[in-house]
Design brief:
The chain is an alpha/beta fold. It is built from five helices and eleven strands. α1 links the parallel β4 and β5.
Length: 264
């Protein structure tokens, strides 16, 4: 049995996991080679993803982890022994946090292969694209959300694979360990928006939530900036995404971190 895939654009597919409406993206070349981004989440879901790839006669040539959080660095032996790229900053960060991340994976999605968990390969320092034979996947690196986070822009299909940014269901989740979490997030949004404009992106696949078209993509930039502004100025964000209890709780950490940087 496979797992339902939704076509995002020609040669781009996504699969939705039950946990946190997590989205995995597949970029598929004409010969069936795949670039797999952030496969997740449960063991069964990742196995079903492997089934679906095999059923369709595709094969995984390479993978990309948008960042090192545990739900983005999962793997199954059946997906193959291929490079799982990440930015150099992310790959380095992963080495230090691997054990803690593995414990989090075990708590929410137990049973993943421990040896394969989080085995990332650093992109070359000057890499502008993921090394693979299929459609170009340009790397937009920034510091928002997690060290070495990167989105991928697929210029041939006009798709932005955003990682844990630009979600319709999650507020901006800041890297509260950074020196300037809100500043990093602003900069991250700026970089993503510049890429959207430059490459005429018309669809966004977030790490969690739902596929968005051009109007929805524009709306997400607006609401995320409104949220950030409220965070920095200490006003009530009034963001409907905060109705979710775990997000309301997640909102408290940045509140303290941001006020430590911006006491106004
Ligand atoms: Zn994350």
């Amino acid at each position: 049995m496979g797992r339902e895939l939704t076509q995002v654009a020609p040669g781009v597919w996504m699969a939705q996991a039950e946990t946190w409406t997590s989205l995995t993206t597949l970029v598929v070349a004409d010969d069936g080679a795949c670039l797999l981004v952030d496969p997740g989440i449960t063991v069964a879901e990742v196995e079903e993803l492997a089934d679906e790839i095999h059923i369709r006669g595709w094969h995984v040539e390479a993978a990309f982890a948008t960042h090192t959080h545990w739900d983005h660095v999962l793997w199954s032996a059946r997906l193959g022994h291929v490079p799982r790229w990440a930015t150099p900053t992310a790959a380095e960060a992963q080495v230090g946090s691997r054990d803690a991340d593995l414990a989090k994976a075990d708590a929410t999605a137990p049973g993943h292969d421990r040896d394969l968990f989080g085995r990332l390969t650093a992109l070359p320092d000057d890499a502008v694209a993921v090394p693979w034979s299929g459609p170009r996947a340009l790397v937009v690196a920034h510091r928002a959300h997690a060290p070495g986070h990167a989105a991928l822009v697929l210029p041939d299909s006009g798709v932005l694979v955003a990682g844990d940014m630009l979600s319709d269901v999650e507020i901006p989740l800041l890297d509260v360990d950074a020196a300037d979490p809100a500043g990093d997030y602003h900069d991250g949004l700026h970089r993503l928006e510049a890429a959207v404009t430059r490459y005429a992106v018309t669809a966004v696949v977030p790490g969690h939530g739902h596929l968005g078209g051009p109007r929805e993509l524009a709306r997400r930039f607006v609401v995320d900036r409104v949220y950030l502004r409220a965070l920095v100025t200490g006003q009530d964000a009034g963001d409907p995404r905060l109705a979710e209890p775990w997000l309301a709780q997640a909102h408290e950490g940045p509140l303290r971190a941001v006020r430590a940087v911006s006491p106004e």
